[in-house]
Amino acid sequence: MSADSFSKWLALREPADTAARSAALTEAIVAALPPDRPLRILDLGSGTGSNVRYLSSRLPAPQHWLLVDRDPDLLAEASGRSANCQIETLGRNLGAPDSLANLADPPLFPGRHLVTASALLDLVSDQWLRALAGHCRAIGAAALFTLNYNGRSRCAPSEAEDDAIRDLMNRHQRTSDNGFGLAAGPDAVDCAERWFAAVGYQVRRAASDWILLPDERELQRQLIEGWAQAAGEISPEQTSMIHDWLARRLAHVEAGRSRVIVGHEDLAAWLA
Ligand SMILES: C[S@@+](CC[C@H](N)C(=O)[O-])C[C@H]1O[C@@H](n2cnc3c(N)ncnc32)[C@H](O)[C@@H]1O
């Protein structure tokens, strides 16, 4: 996907993300933040800054944010669009060549009160999450990771192949490498909980499912096409079944009768 179309995809999903996020976990993180001001926040895989736009009005001011992403065009957009707080951006591949070295890089972690990311954890590996937990612990930061895909999606009206396609999509995620090592995919929140708890954090999780209604046609269409593409890549021998399924699912969308739930989870972690 080009940077321009990826930016459009992020814009399309932002209202669904905002509606889905756990307000309770955001409040728990606010309560766990220290009284120091300004708050220094690190946002990983920032994209065009959706996480800043959601959190900045809900966290105590003043705030200083460092937004990190490998895509400089998305970061430039984030700087232009973002909210009422101080924003710095850093273009960096957070995964390569040595994820531990990258995460330990001095400008990223020291002095941060909160380390956060939205829609990122399912892209990273178990070992990367282990390193992340260690770096958060070393600086005593709270952590909030939202909108992590958990592998549990459902469509209505149902089609016989829905479960098979979802399983192929989940397999595709687990065999992807976005530069962080093999992706944790739907297991990411379990992995993150394990590593943060292992270094002494209290961890809370909450559902943040997308609940897409029939009038959210464009988001549903792009989502379903993405699932079909992933399924076809992991199992080319089932291309014909996948195309048939895609045609029927898109017909439901176009007819305004399609509902889709995409399972996500938020995770918050803090030191007692
Ligand atoms: C699904 S998007 C989420 C963007 C944003 N946090 C949001 O919620 O809209 C994942 C982001 O992670 C970034 N990303 C993926 N792999 C990366 C890597 N290896 N290093 C740095 N950023 C990466 C992508 O460029 C993208 O902006």
Write a concise keyword list for the protein shown above.
272 residues; alpha/beta; Rossmann fold; 8 strands; 45% helix; binds S-adenosylmethionine
What does this structure look like?
The protein has one domain: Rossmann fold, CATH 3.40.50.150. α6 runs parallel beside α8. The chain has 272 residues and is of the alpha/beta class. The protein is built from 10 helices and 8 strands. The model has no long low-confidence stretch (mean pLDDT 94). It starts with a helix and ends with a strand. Strands 1, 2, 3, 4, 5, 6, 7 and 8 form an 8-stranded mixed beta sheet that branches. 45% of the residues lie in helices and 22% in strands. α4 links the parallel β2 and β3. S-adenosylmethionine binds next to α3.
- Structure summary, number of beta strands: 8
Low-confidence region ranges = none
Task: Estimate nothing, just give the exact number of structural domains.
Answer: 1
Shape: globular
| Rg computed from alpha carbons, rounded to a whole number of angstroms | 19 Å
Rounded mean pLDDT score: 94
Topology-level CATH name: Rossmann fold
Helix and strand composition category: alpha/beta
Instruction: Please report the number of helical segments.
Output: 10
The small-molecule ligands in this entry are:
S-adenosylmethionine
Q: Report strand %.
A: 15-25%
Order of helices and strands: HHEHEHEHEHEHHEEHHE
CATH class: Alpha Beta
Distance between the termini: 42 Å
